[in-house]
Amino acid sequence: MKQGWMRKRWWEFRQGHSVYLIFVLTFMNFILISYRLLIEKIPFFKELFPDLWIFVILFLAVYIPAALLIGYWHRKTQLKVESTLTHQQNPLLAKMFRMMLDVQTGKATKEEMQEYRILLRDIEKKMDF
After folding, report:
1. Residue 2: pLDDT above 70?
2. How far does the chain reach from its first CA to its final CA, in angstroms?
3. Domain segments of the chain as ranges
4. pLDDT reading at 18 higher than 70
5. Residue 1: predicted pLDDT
6. Residue 83 binned pLDDT confidence (cut-offs 50, 70, 90)
7. How many helices (H) and strands (E) does the chain have?
8. Which residues contact 95 (CB under 8 A, 6 or more apart)?
9. Other C-beta atoms within 10 Å of 39: how many?
10. If phi over 0 gives left and psi between -120 and 50 gives alpha, with beta otherwise, what is residue 42?
11. Which residues have C-beta within 8 Å of that of residue 113, sequence separation ≥ 6?
12. CA-to-CA distance for 39 and 88, rounded, in angstroms?
């Protein structure tokens, strides 16, 4: 068994748990709590939604299109901002681009290039589970 097998399984577990399973569980939890505390306690809403399944269908009919529109808006406007900020805060990426420019313009010394090669090799080794 490779050294990183357990680390990969741990990462896969966290991804499955946090991205998918918890999403479904919190979504169901939100619907059930909303129905119990809002719909069942207020007579006007109880008349509109006498059963949980009616509330769920109407809730999803509103929630899914709203989530799609917000997701589309996020992808079209906010994702660029997030990506830019993430790249600006990444020192390794900045060093990579600076080194590429220095190599192309002839400003990088052989020592700097060798040092950078070692850095990249070390990163590759860490990624090799």
Report:
1. no
2. 11
3. 1-81, 90-129
4. yes
5. 55
6. confident
7. 7, 0
8. 116
9. 20
10. beta
11. 99, 103
12. 47
- pLDDT band at residue 3 using 50, 70 and 90 as cut-offs: low
Size of the chain in residues: 129
What are the backbone angles phi and psi of residue 28, rounded to the nearest 5°? -65, -40
Distance CA 85, CA 93 (A): 12
CA distance 115 to 104: 17
Q: With contact defined as beta carbons under 8 Å apart, do 108 and 99 qualify?
A: yes
Residues 6+ apart with CB under 8 A from 88: 94
Q: Which of 16, 49, 6, 17 is nearest to 31 (CA)?
A: 49
Query: What is the CB-side half-sphere exposure of residue 40 using CA atoms within 13 A?
Result: 9
Query: Do 39 and 45 contact (CB within 8 A), yes or no?
Result: yes
pLDDT band per the 50, 70, 90 thresholds, residue 69: very high
Q: Which residue has the tokens 């990183």?
A: 4
Query: If you search the block for the tokens 């109880």, which residue do you land on?
Result: 46
The SS3 assignment for 41 reads coil
